[in-house]
Amino acid sequence: MTSGQGGANPGFARGRRLRSTSAMRRWTAQTRVAPADLVLPVFVKQDIAEPVPITSMPGVVQHTLDSLRKAAAEAAEAGISGLMLFGIPAEKDAVGSQADAADGIVNVALQQLRADLGDELVLMADLCLCEYTDHGHCGVVTPAGVVDNDPTLDRYAAVAIAQAQAGAHVIAPSGMMDGQVAAIRAGLDSAAFTETPILAYAAKYASGFYGPFREAAEGAPQFGDRSTYQMDPPNTDEALREVAQDLAEGADAVMVKPAGPYLDIVARVADAVDVPVSAYQVSGEYAMVEAAAANGWIDRERAILETLTAIRRAGAGSVLTYWAVEAARWLR
Ligand code: PBG
Q1: What's residue 223's pLDDT?
Q2: Distance from the alpha carbon of residue 70 to the mean position of ligand 1, in angstroms
Q3: Ligand 1 contacts CB of residue 56 (under 6 A)
Q4: pLDDT, mean over the chain
């Protein structure tokens, strides 16, 4: 640390002068996290009578329609910006029919939340097929078991229209098919949803940190993995290419995912674009902190707030986090 040059006390570090009290640290803080910076991912499951806890994500549940409505009201009360919805249907099939069925679980949930909350929260619909397909891949597959890009795009456009129809404010494609943003934009426009924005999961890595989510969303691939369509962890430039491509196709906002292990990507993307940048603090990031805290190895609240601050510091405008509501209450 540089010491203060000159002055009455040249040996005293300038850094320390500005850190001497908590009010001083608050005054000089360059990064803040506010409730409005947070978005809560939620899971809603068809045909369950009670919320089902997710073992690998203590404190997170698969909601019933009713418990979701209650959680959404609490989220609005806590002052967060929005919800990201994931649906888990009772029946899965090869093409993920329940994703765009008008009475499919996620679409019913969107209708109810929109009726309850109007525009109070931004209702974001995750658009992917992995929770809806019996094989667990993010798109339709060829007889040889390869995810088939272009037929999947037609499915995505249909799902986007169904979600917008049901009341989603934002469509968030997470399947990482090439051309998905253009296909979804064209679909939405053709159904007169020209004003519904697309938040593209633009830089989504094939990550080991999605493990607990696959229990939550029941969407683990039954064969193979996602490394042919999700990005390879060693790569950086590819993230910028994916982002540029999604923007060229009409994305209104972009996301980096996971967040914590990819802060360099968040920073580079935030530097490169002039649209809102979100970062998704994924299930494994949540589970690690919860597990360590449960063992008494770290201070839970402090660690959680530090992760959120770090993601904002790297340049994310908003953070999707399973701690959104709890953290918002601390931050008010
Ligand atoms: C599905 C999807 C995944 C996540 C969000 N959407 C899992 C995956 O790609 O396998 C992960 C979220 C999390 O881990 O919290 N496309």
Answers
A1: 84
A2: 24
A3: no
A4: 94
Q: Is the CB of 282 under 6 A from ligand 1?
A: yes
Amino acid at 162: A
Is 249 touching ligand 1 by the criterion CB < 6 Å? Answer: no
Q: Pick the residue whose CA is nearest to atom 14 on ligand 1.
A: 210
Query: Helix 300-314 vs helix 283-294: angle between axes, to the nearest 10 degrees?
Result: 150
Name 189's Cβ contacts closer than 8 Å, sequence gap at least 6: none
- DSSP characters for 232-265? PTT-SHHHHHHHHHHHHTT-SEEEEESSGGGHHH
Whether 242 and 255 have beta carbons less than 8 Å apart is answered as: no
User: Residue 67 and residue 50: Cα distance in Å, rounded?
Assistant: 8
pTM for the whole thing? 0.94
CA 170, CA 198: separation in Å to the nearest integer? 6
| Angle, CA of 28, 32 and 38, to the nearest 5° | 180
**CB of 130 closer than 6 angstroms to any ligand 1 atom:** yes
Structure tokens at 171: 């469509």
The answer, yes or no, to whether the previous bond of 258 is cis (omega within 30 of 0) is yes
Cβ neighbours, 10 Å, residue 127: 28
User: Would you say 230 and 204 are in contact if contact means Cβ atoms under 8 Å apart?
Assistant: yes
Hey, whose CA ends up nearest to atom 5 of ligand 1?
174
The encoded tokens of residue 118 equal 């109007």
Q: Is the bond preceding 234 in cis, omega lying within 30 degrees of 0?
A: no
Q: Which domains does the chain have, with CATH numbers?
A: 32-331 (3.20.20.70)
Q: Cβ neighbours of residue 61 under 8 Å, at least 6 residues apart?
A: 43, 51, 52, 53, 54, 67
CA–CA separation, 216 and 76 (whole Å): 23
What is the per-residue pLDDT across 124-178, written as a single tens digit (0 to 9) for each? 999 999 999 999 999 999 998 899 999 999 999 999 999 999 999 999 999 989 9
- Catalytic residue ranges: 204, 257
Distance of CA 189 to the CA centre of its chain: 24
Cα–Cα distance, 256 to 217 (Å, whole number): 20
CA-nearest residue for atom 6, ligand 1, is 174
Which is it for the CA torsion 197, 82, 107, 46, positive or negative? positive
